[in-house]
Backbone:
């Protein structure tokens, strides 16, 4: 999604301090994340090439571009309502995204379902969502509503509804958020509306948002795959290579650990 004035304001937030390794990674991810959603004047067909950067490169060296401190941001919480896949999956993809982001919607519609079929369903991959609203009040409201849907175990259904073609163009006012919740099959709509406006929702969204700022993410979507930053709605091939590289590294470390 093209970077707008509203997206520049959050990027000035000071990163949280996670350690020297994360500061280095934050510099890389912050630059690449800006590149991923910077204005593109060469036409719609060039969106993939404009998002290409060193943070999206995956080499045969499994350690290249990987930051162990960033890998530790995977929560692996069995009670996480905004996560998909086994808690003990060898690979964790953390997704920092905004429901008003067009590239995030492209990833949600075109790439993520394939990743679920290929890697989540067989236990290789876990996906952990982080709300990263950077496009104003509508983004914030949609993020809180996503969290509220998750409290009734309908987060991923809400996610699909909110990222469907044409959904973001309708805006995210209260009536539209309720309509999306109905579409997602949220059973108790009154509770959903209360939860959306609750202090717990605001705190949960703020926690995710600060984590994203803390690693240097400035725009959406931004990803971590076992500590490897990937910026933008990259191709399926980029995610496949990153996941398989991370899975192989995990298998190697597991074999080495078992041999000791």
Residues:
């Amino acid at each position: 999604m093209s970077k707008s004035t509203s997206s520049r304001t959050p990027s000035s937030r000071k990163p949280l301090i996670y350690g020297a390794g994360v500061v280095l990674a934050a510099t890389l991810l912050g630059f690449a994340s800006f590149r991923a959603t910077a204005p593109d004047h060469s036409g719609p067909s060039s969106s993939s090439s404009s998002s290409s950067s060193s943070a999206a490169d995956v080499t045969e060296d499994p350690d290249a571009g990987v930051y162990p401190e960033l890998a530790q941001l995977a929560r692996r919480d069995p009670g996480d309502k905004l996560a998909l896949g086994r808690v003990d999956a060898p690979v964790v993809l953390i997704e920092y995204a905004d429901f008003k982001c067009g590239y995030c919607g492209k990833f949600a519609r075109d790439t993520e379902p394939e990743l679920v079929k290929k890697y989540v369903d067989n236990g290789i991959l876990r996906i952990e969502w982080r709300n990263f609203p950077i496009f104003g009040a509508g983004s914030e409201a949609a993020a809180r509503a996503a969290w509220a849907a998750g409290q009734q175990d309908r987060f991923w259904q809400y996610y699909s509804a909110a990222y469907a073609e044409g959904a973001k163009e309708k805006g995210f006012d209260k009536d539209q958020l309720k309509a999306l919740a109905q579409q997602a099959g949220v059973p108790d709509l009154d509770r959903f509306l209360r939860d959306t406006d609750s202090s717990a929702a605001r705190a949960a969204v703020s926690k995710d948002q600060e984590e994203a700022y803390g690693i240097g993410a400035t725009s959406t979507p931004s990803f971590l795959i076992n500590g490897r930053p990937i910026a933008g709605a990259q191709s399926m091939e980029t995610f496949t290579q990153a996941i398989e590289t991370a899975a192989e590294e995990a298998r190697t470390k597991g074999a080495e650990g078992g041999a000791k």
